[in-house]
Amino acid sequence: MILVVEDEQAINDLIAWNLTMIGHTVLQARTGREARTLFRENAFDLLLLDVMLPDTDGFSLYRDMRTVPAIFVTALGETRDKVKGFELGADDYLVKPFETQELLMRVNAVLRRTLRMEDRYSFDDIEVDFHAKTVTKGGQIVDLTAQEFSLLEILIRNRNIAVSRQQILRDAWGITFFGETRTIDVHVQRLRKKLGLDDQIKTVYKCGYRFEDRR
Ligand code: CA
């Protein structure tokens, strides 16, 4: 889930709409006050913080929210502000006006970077240990082939983001030629069946798959 903090309604809506279109859940705040309330009541994966806000500035706001990755969004493209953002631990910086495509790429890049660092992941009664490469369901070990495990790992580490079949071949299986992508579909079917993840692993039309985790 992503929190968008931006006082200009049109820009806030535009950002939120674009992120929603690629499958993210988004909450919107227009002031620091609204942002703090939402931050207390929800668990976010990423914050998009406008620097100039009516009641505070994005940098001050982020001092209390540093447990979550952030991208600062601002019209001030000055080096001084960038340095300040990065000193606070910002993950990226976006200068207005920006292209939608650039926004989406940066958001996905930050999410991928932060998700990749996890050692473990759990969902319902499923526990995945990326280090030991084991999966349990309801406390019982589930037997996965190495290929199935890599597939599951890439889907989880990119959760809520569509992963293309080419990306699965290349990043999960280390196959650099565009081979038989139907093999992936077969493996996905097996994975869904073994783990009971029919509802979580969505097929994305003309692209690949997306692991949904909307908690
Ligand atoms: Ca502003």
If you had to describe this structure to a student in words, what would you say it looks like?
The chain has 215 residues and is of the alpha/beta class. Helices cover 41% and strands 21% of the residues. It contains eight helices and twelve strands. It has helices at 9-21, 32-41, 58-63, 79-87, 100-115, 146-157, 165-172, 182-195, and strands at residues 2-5, 26-29, 46-50, 70-74, 92-95, 120-123, 126-129, 134-137, 140-141, 163-164, 201-204, 208-211. The strands form three sheets. Strands 2-1-3-4-5 form a five-stranded parallel β-sheet, with helices on both faces. It has a four-stranded antiparallel β-sheet with strand order 6-7-8-9, with no helix packed on it. β8 and β9 (140-141) form a beta hairpin. The longest helix is centred in the middle third of the chain and has 16 residues, at 100-115. The chain starts with a strand and ends with a strand. Calcium ion binds next to loops.
How are the secondary structure elements laid out?
Layout: E1 2-5, H1 9-21, E2 26-29, H2 32-41, E3 46-50, H3 58-63, E4 70-74, H4 79-87, E5 92-95, H5 100-115, E6 120-123, E7 126-129, E8 134-137, E9 140-141, H6 146-157, E10 163-164, H7 165-172, H8 182-195, E11 201-204, E12 208-211
Parallel strand pairs: 1-2, 1-3, 3-4, 4-5
Antiparallel strand pairs: 6-7, 7-8, 8-9, 10-12, 11-12
Helix pairs in contact: 6-8
Bound molecules: calcium ion (CA).
Calcium ion is lined by residues 7-8, 50, 52-53.
